Fold this protein.
Amino acid sequence: MPATPLNPHDLYDVRALLSEEERMVQDSVARFTDERVLPIIGDCFDQGRFPTELIPEMAELGLLGATLPTEYGCGGMNGVSYGLICQELERGDSGLRSFASVQSSLCMYPIFAYGSEEQKRHWLPPMAAGKVIGCFGLTEPHGGSDPANMKTHARKDGGDWVINGAKMWITNGNLAHIAIVWAQTEEGIQGFIVPTDSKGFAAQEVHKKMSLRASVTSALFLDNVRVPDANRLPGVKGLKGPLGCLTQARYGITWGPIGAAIACFSETTEYAKNRMLFQRPLAATQAVQLKLADMARRITLAQLLSLQLGRLKDAGTMQPTQVSLAKWNNCRMAIDIARECRDILGGAGITTEHSPIRHALNLESVITYEGTETVHQLVVGREITGINAF
């Protein structure tokens, strides 16, 4: 019998390693991306507009706080399912995955992991429903990859805290109803739930972006912002608080770029099969086949890397260094593929009529935020040698 043709986007049949529930999650988000995201996302990127009209649909699908317990109105899914959500959303656009990632891993997760029971029950259900949007205030204008050098500070004043400082490159900043703000205190770094309508709080959207244009990026300013002690996250002190959130988010980022790479690879493969050059399809040339084969190889390796990472996460044994390795590998894989696909598309590749240039530009941010490629390389190097070279 002839062999069954392989799926070009899944040469090792990684899908067969998924549970039935995981496949159902992937299929439902894939349909959402195909039907609701792809028809509009090129225009959103051109216009510099985040498609807020999709938030209720994402909430209805259970994509916000997907892995948190159902008792708080969340999805109760496993880590692999969350990874597949990120993959399918980023197959649409990195901006959409960033929105879900920030809402879920950087805002809802710290409330769940470090918050009081009252905070969980007050905030998580409306956040899962998409009625309360959050942003994550850690990065500062001067700080970048050195979050310990934090200038934002909070001082106790009676039963309140007074917060002063500024945060930069904050996804969802001008959409958010609350900000999870990390600040220096006399007892170390602590997190605060800050309503964005608080007196002294301001968000200023960042414009002139050439990346993540279908996403809201902001600077936050806090000028004597007063919040009650009930808004402090009581369960953690020190840098391990925000870093724990970032590990959750980076895990999702290891999956997201796989989706971006598949989008570029799929579109470019079809283009190469139909584009006639010198009386034959572009795909009939050895040069193009070698490039497409290399893309398939790299996508396959990334899929296996993230799936194993997800299994480790669900087993409770995932280590931050393992996340760094996958974030480094998969972001590099995706940005290289997006650039190569743009090249194969020729002149047509510079327009947003095709997805590779949009994904390539977005991935310039994805490979940088939540740990640059260099930082993750050094994390792995430190694990191997036992020597901190930062």
